[in-house]
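Milestone M4 deliverable, item 7.
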Amino acid sequence: MSIFLVGNFAIPEFAQEFPIFKNTNTPPKGDHKEAIWSLWDGEKFWRVGKLTEKDQMKYPFLSLCDATALVKNIEDGAFFNSKFC
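Output delivered:
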């Protein structure tokens, strides 16, 4: 697998606001309906407790995938909000 830098582009105005991320200590195969969630705005964390599935979809996970996991998730049709890398 090869990764190539193809260029630098300005961030569109609609995407310039820093997102709020979700985080939990529930293992990847754990029951996310029972998970206790925290949110992070780039500066501070705050505990929010349980989130509905709809609310969980509002926030990306606070985690990174390596290139291999990212490719596998794309090939499997997974999307980042539904599973950990």
